[in-house]
Amino acid sequence: MLVLENKNEIFGKRLKLLRNKIGKNQEEIANAIGVSRATYSHYENNHVEPDIDLIRKLADYHNVDTDYLLGRTDTPRYIEDQEKRKQIVIDKIKEEFSGADLMFKDLANMTAEQLEEVYDFIKFKIQKGSD
Question: Backbone dihedral region of 51: left (phi > 0), alpha (psi from -120 to 50 degrees) or beta?
């Protein structure tokens, strides 16, 4: 008989995987979705199941579909969306900050989150320099 992974454990494992992938700690994710760190930890450890609204919040936060979080599919939606988000931020940096692509030759290898941080940093430094 074929033994499948316990579907009840997939949700927590995927939350942890996604959190680690973006380099955030439990406190940061908990704050972003409006729960305590302890509550979020219970979700990752499959001690407590979130309600449907929180599942949607978590899916939106990680830019994946709820089916992926719930184990109904093994392919997260974010793969395609990440590429689009990355290109939007790269274009934004190139357009607003001429020469930035010379400073950041590895823009294409960065995640969308890293690119957004680069954009915010450049914007901050330019504003700070004009003070």
Answer: beta
* Cβ neighbours of 65 (radius 10 Å): 18
Question: 97: which 2 tokens?
Answer: 């900050």
- Residue 1 placed within a domain: no
What's the number of domains the chain is made of? 2
Distance separating alpha carbons of residues 47 and 43, to the nearest angstrom:
6
The tens digit of pLDDT for each residue in 60-107 reads 888 888 899 998 888 777 656 667 777 777 777 777 776 665 555 666
In a domain, 44, yes or no: yes
* Residues of the domain holding 107: 78-129
Q: Which of 65, 78, 69, 112 is nearest to 93 (CA)?
A: 112
